Amino acid sequence: MWIPRVISCTLASLAELAGGNDAAFRLRLRRETACFHYELRDLEPEALLIEAAAAFMSAISGLLIGDEEARALLTLYPTARIRLAAYRDTADVEVREALAFCVAHFFLRCRWPSVHDRLDHDAFLALLRDQARLAGWRCAPPAAVDFLLDGSAGHETPSEESLPPSPTRR
Question: What pTM does this model have?
Fold first, then answer.
C-alpha cells in the first residue's frame, strides 16, 4: 500500500527529530502525561464545564446524560475530569477523546472507535445504547447522534468570560 511521504511521519521519525529513539520518546511522553495528571489530581471542572461535557457525551452517544451523570462518569474517569478542568474547553481534541472514552469504556469496556477503525458506527452505537438501557440509562432518538468527535453536533463550551480564572493554564 502506497502512503504519501508527508502522511507517513511516524512517532519514530518525530522521536528522531527530537534527538532520541522511539521507545525513549514514548516513555518521555508517558512520563510527562503521568506527571501532569498527578500534579492536577485534585482539580475539579466548573459547573458550566460539566454541563458542556454532558452535552458533548450525549451528542456523540445518543444517551441522555445529564450533569449528575456526567459528574459521576468524570469521577470514575479522572483523566477525563482533569483534562476537562485543566483545558477548560470541550472543543479540545484531548478532552473530547477522554470524554468519549468515558462513555465507551463505562458501558462496553473499550475505547471510542476512531474513523480509522473501519467499524460499523451504527452497530457500535446500537450496542452502546443497548448496554446503557440495560443499565438503566435513558436514550435520545437515534437521529440526534453525532458519532464523530469533530464538534458538528453544535454543543458549545462556555466562553472564557463565563468561567473563573484557571490556575492551570500553561
Answer: 0.74
